[in-house]
């Protein structure tokens, strides 16, 4: 009898120890979904970067919005979207997006504004069950637009974007406006307004040369600080990586700096085609003293993703072959996926930062060894990442800090 009790006790302890290290099943499912989103991000990046000196966009927001549309797609349209969104290995993506949306909603504040909506021409009737499911699973809006309304859909949609981003984005549509043939359009608006955990001292900002990819210098404002940061040298495709933590502990900005002034294209190819190099960006850091120099910049980008998404394998959604019969009985075609991103980086974080951290004067410490040097004075990649779910919220490249606006719509 005693022997049996001992055996049961041992088995119970083993079970408890094993489960003590188990990850929350919801978080595990969310990470599978964010892995799909990140795979989508890497593919999308290679299609939208082109030759622009500055590209900033949110692959996660695009993935979320397109998953909403995928929910209402059928037959070959659904098959193409599933493959393009990398959802073939994700069970129950729409239910998981509900958990992810709840998790990401905790980031919503004056510091992080992310919003999206599916706009449908008012002459088409949306199925109530689709509208209900999108609201329940994605906490998103399904809105109507009409060409007969005062100011047309341009006025209505721009007003929506302005309201949702609290005035940070006043106009989201391309200057050409919306085609009269539009039946379905997807809009996402983003604004990031964060502060660094370790702010830069404005007195240390000065004019320095930033070397563009062709080697020509341009004078820009460069911020500088010496502090303890997570860094690794020549760790990813002959590039250095530094992690800049934000006051929201879930978020961090990762800068990936090629050792060569002209090394960005090779780095981008490596990170976007090699899973090991991509994952290596976010792991294996050494926390040490770093002398960091980073350009101060502000940029606004508008990107049309239609061609990129078609080339990634989902052309039917944008053609007469589109099947969105779970959204409406009427034939719908996705006109475009338009995204506008405003990204501003300065000493405390961003220009419109609502929380200011005290900034002390810069005084280099007395050290027996000099700090590691991370001088971002030539083109680099960057990622804004939610370290809890591994989701890439923002991705981009900076090849010229003097560029203030990029229109790829």
TrEMBL record:
SMART domains: SERPIN
Tree of life domain: Eukaryota
Keyword check for Signal: yes
PROSITE patterns, sorted: SERPIN
Transmembrane segments: none
Molecular function GO terms recorded: serine-type endopeptidase inhibitor activity
Record-linked InterPro entries: Serpin_CS (IPR023795), Serpin_dom (IPR023796), Serpin_fam (IPR000215), Serpin_sf (IPR036186), Serpin_sf_1 (IPR042178), Serpin_sf_2 (IPR042185)
Protein's recorded name: Serpin domain-containing protein
């Amino acid at each position: 009898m005693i022997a049996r009790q001992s055996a049961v006790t041992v088995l119970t302890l083993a079970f408890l120890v094993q489960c003590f290290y188990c990850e929350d099943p919801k978080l595990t499912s969310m990470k599978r979904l964010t892995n799909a989103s990140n795979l989508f991000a890497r593919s999308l990046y290679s299609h939208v970067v082109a030759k622009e000196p500055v590209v900033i966009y949110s692959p996660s927001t695009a993935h979320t919005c397109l998953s909403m549309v995928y929910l209402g797609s059928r037959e070959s349209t659904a098959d193409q979207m599933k493959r393009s969104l990398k959802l073939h290995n994700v069970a129950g993506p729409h239910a998981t997006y509900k958990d992810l949306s709840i998790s990401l909603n905790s980031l919503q504040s004056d510091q992080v504004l992310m919003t999206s909506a599916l706009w449908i021409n008012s002459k088409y009737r949306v199925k109530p069950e689709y509208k209900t499911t999108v609201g329940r699973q994605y906490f998103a809006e399904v809105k109507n637009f009409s060409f007969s309304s005062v100011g047309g859909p341009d006025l209505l949609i721009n007003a929506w974007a302005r309201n949702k981003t609290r005035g940070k984005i006043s106009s989201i549509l391309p200057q050409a406006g919306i085609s009269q043939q539009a039946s379905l359009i997807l809009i996402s608006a983003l604004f990031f307004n964060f502060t660094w955990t370790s702010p830069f001292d404005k007195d240390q900002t000065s004019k320095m040369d930033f070397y563009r990819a062709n080697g020509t210098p341009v004078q820009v404002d460069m911020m500088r600080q010496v502090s303890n940061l997570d860094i690794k040298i020549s760790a990813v495709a002959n590039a250095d990586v530094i992690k800049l933590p934000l006051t929201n502990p879930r978020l961090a900005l990762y800068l990936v700096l090629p050792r060569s002034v002209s090394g960005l294209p090779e780095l981008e190819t490596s990170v976007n085609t090699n899973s090991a190099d991509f994952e290596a960006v976010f792991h294996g850091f050494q926390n040490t003293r770093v002398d960091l120099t980073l350009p101060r910049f502000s940029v606004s980008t508008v990107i049309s993703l239609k061609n990129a998404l078609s080339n990634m394998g989902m052309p039917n959604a944008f053609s007469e072959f589109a099947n969105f019969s779970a959204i409406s009985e009427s034939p719908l075609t996705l006109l475009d996926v338009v995204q506008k991103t405003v990204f501003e980086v300065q000493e405390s974080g961003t220009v419109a930062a609502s929380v200011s951290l005290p900034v002390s004067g810069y005084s280099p410490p007395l050290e027996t060894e000099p700090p590691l040097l991370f001088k971002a004075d030539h083109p680099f990649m960057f990622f804004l990442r939610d370290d809890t779910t591994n989701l890439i919220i923002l991705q981009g490249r900076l090849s010229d800090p003097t560029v203030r606006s990029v229109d790829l719509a």
